[in-house]
Write a structure and sequence with these properties.
584 residues, alpha+beta, 14-stranded antiparallel barrel, five-stranded antiparallel beta sheet, 14 helices
Length: 584
């Protein structure tokens, strides 16, 4: 008889599981169209078997968003839960609760009575906030993992995804089934409840917790663990595939700052994930300092009081700060890369301020140590410098093509007269008595230049990232030389350095850049076409420690479909260089 009762109970539980699983498939299939099905959600989400084969995706939240959610999802060791109850209350109610707790001697009733005397209606949210403040000094359970259950949406249409529920676990394990099976309803927050948790939009980029989680999905801060939820994680369904490409922009309707930074990392050749806020780069053609700051970094260092009260454990997560645009910086940079004239060979030095996605500064009235290029590599130059100028570059989104749309624009303009080339001073005779004009003795000054490229970027697998740019480039170049000039008033002659003419060159241009991050020694390259010539660079980064690396560069230029201009002096140039990189 007892065996019969157990068998019947087992069959009843099995039938219940089948019914609830069928209900999960029905509710989740129509969820995007009928949000009123919320009342049925929590019971279904409590057991993994009820919903994991439904029409849903399961995402595991990653850093840095995980660190933020850990501070918002608070539950004390007695089981009272709140989604950041106290922090989301108006400031005047927070102040009243603080005063009430201070006067209460630990009595919740005393706190409630005080709030009533202040004309505050104590609802469920305020009640949870009182518990939160009264138990601040007591042992807390710490959220370890957070998951999002969503409707099924392709990666290209992530903005259409509906979050069905947020589930969180206190278990210190990576096993999904252990984290999500037999969850109490207090650890499940549904669509409606997420939308009711207000957030500071200026700080988090979202007005409520639902939108914050949605942004995390769009920005690829969540890992799709649906195969693991369905028990397929350990099953090999076939040979691994390679060559899978995807845009670096997740949402075709929006380009985030973090995605712009991915574009810039490709162009700058920045393969390393830096955890130090400060980056110093020193080389013959660049000296720079950049400051990176992660807006969520304050939430990564957390303290947990263990259940047996043996002591305090500290969990430290080191954020990757250069996932974000630099906050500020300064650099001394050589070169006019936009028109092929790179590094010291260009006789162009500029001091720039760097912040976010912009670089703006002054062109210096000097060619600096450009003479080293000729002395070290025996390559003749034809360009000179002029007075002070301005230059800058910007990378900003404009929505034209879906999942693309980061424009790169750069410019420069030099004021004042050109200076005679410093490396020709010893060979020139400018004394009026001995001067003989030579029309072939010319120095060239790049007066102005500009470039606009529409760029898009793709990742192939995880380690290979390409940035493609197409647009136009133009520059004006002047030729200067020593000539006899007659004063119209005194009719006397003198030797003067004057402009003899100028020329404007413009045309279509394109650039391809590659960044390879997964290798032991990361490498990359870039190649540009403009004005029937090509230029490019190839680099390899050698990591010495977690903080120090040496990057070896080779830059080059070649006129491939035309003859070299007179100011280029030769049809091709190759110049090796290096950079020492220090992150702290």
């Amino acid at each position: 008889m007892k065996m019969g009762m157990n068998t019947g109970k087992t069959m009843l539980l099995a039938v219940k599981s089948v019914v609830l699983a069928a209900a999960a498939m029905f509710v989740f299939t129509g969820f995007a169209q009928d949000v009123q099905a919320q009342d049925d959600i929590k019971p279904l989400l409590q057991r993994l078997n009820y919903w994991r084969y439904g029409n849903v995706f399961v995402y595991k939240v990653k850093q840095p968003v995980l660190g933020e959610l850990k501070t918002l999802l608070v539950e004390d060791s007695d089981g009272g839960s709140a989604a950041g109850s106290f922090d989301n209350l108006p400031s005047e109610i927070q102040a009243a609760i603080n005063v009430g707790v201070g006067r209460s001697g630990g009595s919740k009733t005393a706190v409630i009575n005080y709030l009533i005397t202040q004309g505050i209606n104590v609802d469920a949210t305020i009640d949870a906030a009182i518990d939160e403040k009264l138990n601040d000094s007591g042992p807390k359970k710490k959220v370890s993992n957070v998951y999002l259950v969503t409707t099924r949406t392709g990666r290209t249409e992530m903005h259409k995804t509906v979050i069905i529920g947020l589930l969180y676990s206190f278990k210190d394990t990576e096993e999904l089934k252990s984290n999500l099976d037999f969850l109490p309803e207090s650890q499940i927050i549904t669509y409606d409840e997420l939308a009711l948790v207000d957030m500071d939009e200026t700080k988090y980029g979202a007005g409520n917790l639902y939108d914050y989680c949605k942004n995390a999905l769009i920005q690829n801060n969540c890992a799709n663990v649906t195969p693991e939820a369905q028990g397929l994680a350990q099953i090999s369904l076939g040979a691994p595939s390679f060559g899978n490409s995807a845009s670096l922009i997740a949402d075709e309707a929006d380009v985030t700052d973090m995605e712009i930074q991915k574009f810039l990392k490709i162009s700058e050749g920045e393969p390393t994930a830096y955890t130090g806020n400060n980056l110093v780069v020193v080389g013959p053609d660049i000296v720079s300092y950049r400051r990176y700051e992660d807006p969520w970094a304050a939430y990564y260092v957390e303290e947990e009081v263990v259940a047996d009260e043996e002591g305090i454990e500290e969990e430290v997560y080191e954020p990757i700060v250069n996932d974000f645009l630099p906050k500020y910086g300064v650099e001394l940079r050589y070169g006019i890369d936009e028109i092929h004239y790179t590094g010291l060979w260009s006789s162009r030095a500029a001091l720039n301020a760097v912040w976010s996605n912009a670089r703006l500064g002054v062109i210096l009235p000097t060619d600096g140590w450009s003479l080293l290029h000729e002395e070290l590599f025996d390559q003749e130059r034809g360009l000179t410098h002029g007075g002070v100028g301005i230059n800058g570059s910007f990378d900003f989104p404009i929505k034209i093509v879906p999942k693309s749309g980061v424009f790169h624009t750069s410019f420069g303009y030099v004021f004042g007269d050109a200076d005679p080339a410093s490396w020709k001073e010893d060979s020139r005779v400018t004394d009026l008595l001995f001067f003989e004009e030579d029309v072939n003795d010319v120095d060239y000054l790049v007066r102005a230049h500009g470039q606009v490229h529409y760029t898009f970027a793709v990742a192939i697998d995880e380690d290979y990232m390409f940035r493609f740019g197409f647009g136009g480039t133009a520059y004006q170049i002047e030729n200067w030389g020593y000539s006899l000039v007659e004063d119209p008033e005194t009719l006397t002659e003198s030797v003067q350095f004057i402009e003899r003419g100028n020329e404007t060159i413009a045309g279509v241009s394109g650039r391809v850049e590659l960044l390879v991050m997964g290798a032991t020694t990361p490498y990359g390259m870039g190649i540009q076409y403009f004005d029937e010539a090509i230029s490019g660079n190839l680099w390899l980064q050698l990591p010495f420690t977690e903080q120090v690396a040496l990057r070896m560069d080779v830059k080059g230029f070649a006129a491939v479909l035309r003859d070299a201009y007179s100011w280029e002096t030769q049809s091709s140039v190759i110049a090796p260089s290096f950079r020492v990189i220090y992150n702290f």
